[in-house]
Design goal:
Length: 374
Amino acid sequence: MTRPYFFFGILRHLPLLEVVLGRPVQVQTAWLADHALYWTKDGSFPVMLYRPGEQAEGVLLEEQSASDVDRLDFFEGGFGFSAHPVQVIRGGEPVDAQIFRPEPFGIPTDLGPAWRLENWQQRFGAEYEAMARDYLAQFGLKPPRAVAARFEQILTRGASRVRAAQAAPTELRHHTVAGDVAVAALREPYARFFAMEEIDVSFRRFDGSMSPQVTRAGFIACDAVTVLPYDPVRDRVLVVDQFRTGPYLRGDPQPWQIEAIAGRIDPGETPVEAARREAVEEAGLVLADLLPVASYYPSPGCSAEYLYSFVAVTDLPDAVAGVFGVEGEAEDIRGHLISFDRMMELVASGEISNAPTVLTAFWLAQNRARLRET
């Protein structure tokens, strides 16, 4: 008989465990003596360490099918985790079980505080459930290591799915209900930092019938933010200047772009938190209040990217301009302090030619007088 599995970390979150196994589960509470859980620094998951006198709470999954074992090996194996025997306590009695742990089992040095399931669930639970659906969609199609290599991208997409579920109004457009979209096949011909997906799909027509099956492809990018710092006293903004791949691949001889500060929303972050972080990374600015400009799909016909744009009212003295970027990410970003009028000249001339910055410039033009009065 196979030993029961003891889950002590994120798989204690039963909705996530059910996604991984592809079925409802029933578990029992158990404890592992002389161990405790800690956050990994800047991580979204815990690590278990030997701690005499402490106990790590977990759950026991006693009944497993061959499919359960295969799906768990796929989910855990990509990260170098495998099942190892362990003895846990259930109802005061010892039970022989097995846990997933990495091999070799190292001791991290960059630990955070003690890990609590409730805190993790509030911040990451829904994102991990969405991530696991995408992750397990590759079960039987790709090797575990190949899928795990894109874990951060898959988790970031899961966070985007959670935000997307908070749908905008449908007062004018068609209100989608179950059965309005039918996907016959899903393929992923390319997946690295970004991915491409191709679907064979039919959709509800306005006459009530379903369309013929068509093949459509989309660029899979995560949700992102832009933020334009504006000083209403000096009536100027800070924009950044950096090389951009898209214009270069289009054949643009001038691929450096004048933009608002921008970056992706990391797992566990809100759009506002991401905007503040990016302002520090790209311009060395600590921002307070952010004013929402719009949230939108910049190119819905071919991309899943969704943007949240902000204006930040802040102090912009001469010293804030400079060269910034995150070390290790090949970022080389120059900040420019320019007047509001100069920004609008650059929009008119086409030197500012990316949609989020143009959109934000027009929003600022509409609201500038009000901001300068306050």
